[in-house]
Design brief:
Layout (H helix, E strand, L loop, with lengths): L11 H16 L3 E7 L5 E7 L5 E6 L3 H5 L13 E6 L13 E5 L4 E5 L8 H23 L6
Parallel strand pairs: 3-4, 4-5
Antiparallel strand pairs: 1-2, 2-3, 5-6
Length: about 150
């Protein structure tokens, strides 16, 4: 079994939320990538792609302060069909914007509490995001088997 390395940018709470959300999405048929860099340069906490080509972005918020200090999330809409916030059970769901979906997650799984209104991405943007997803996944997989690919 290959062990994934944590990059150290996220808190323990965020890592727990990430695990629960990724388990939920995997059960729903999505492939997921954490810490995915979008064409805008912004980094989505989780991007997910299902067999039909539907793309979700999940923004993890581990606390009220984490949410209040982040104003970049509206920029994610142009890169996905559905945008969700994922929070731990300790964060009040009422503070999350109603236009986004809401997921409550812990170390073992997650539940979708609210779905957003689905948007449809432009076909060229969908193709670009899907190709970027595939390349990122392939490069990460290669990195697991060859930690020094450029040597």
């Amino acid at each position: 079994m290959v062990e994934l390395r944590q990059d150290g940018r996220q808190s323990e709470t965020a890592a727990i939320i990430q695990r629960g959300v990724c388990r939920l999405l995997r059960q729903a048929g999505f492939a997921t990538l954490p810490e995915f860099t979008l064409a805008s340069g912004r980094r989505a906490d989780i991007i997910a792609l299902n067999p039909a080509g539907t793309i979700w972005i999940v923004e993890i918020k581990s606390s009220l302060e984490d949410f209040r200090t982040d104003a970049k999330w509206p920029e994610y809409w142009e890169f996905c069909d559905e945008l969700y916030f994922a929070i731990p059970p300790s964060v009040m769901p009422e503070i999350m914007p109603s236009e986004a979906g809401l997921i409550i997650a812990d170390n073992w799984g997650a539940d979708i509490i609210r779905s957003p209104a689905a948007a449809t991405m432009h076909a060229s943007r969908r193709k670009a995001v899907t190709l970027a997803f595939a390349r990122a996944a392939a490069l990460r997989l290669h990195g697991l088997y060859d930690p020094m690919p450029n040597s």
